[in-house]
Amino acid sequence: MNTKFFGMIGIALTACLATAAVAAPKLGPGDALPPQLGFDLKGDATESAPFAGKVVIVAFWATWCTPCRWELTMLEGLQKVAGKEQLQVVAINTEDRGTFIRAARALKVASILITHDFGETASDAFGVRGLPHSVIVGRDGKIINVHVGYGERAFDTMLAEINAALAANK
Length: 170
Description:
Largest sheet: 5 strands, mixed
Oligomer: single chain
Strand order of the largest sheet: 5-4-3-6-7
Distance between the termini: 67 Å
Radius of gyration: 19 Å
CATH superfamily: Glutaredoxin
CATH topology: Glutaredoxin
Structural class: alpha/beta
């Protein structure tokens, strides 16, 4: 038996499995919202189950990202107009916990839910590679669309999708 040959096959198989794990598909349109969306100021997990039946916007952000901060202000305004019983914004901070705590306490956004992505679990699940990264989820818990980057035209598109989601299945 050629052990060198089988050893090489084992190395190749291990490399393929490792690549497959890294290249796993990320959450996108049609996928269900994951069960957890970061951690709150106390360090408790924020579960997505209580948002069932609502339109949910998951917005990944950082303090250094000016478009993210602007987007959070706009999304808070949308949530105030639609009402928390219809629309829930979950803003997931991607920075270290200390920066998150300072930022969450300083933010002037009172009605949206601010969480922290400890361990980058949410960022990995959603495939976040740039900010802002926003996900619109319908009342059925399925992702409608994912928006990466920012621009007025992009926000207009997001607003149209959010309005359509709010009008659906009332």
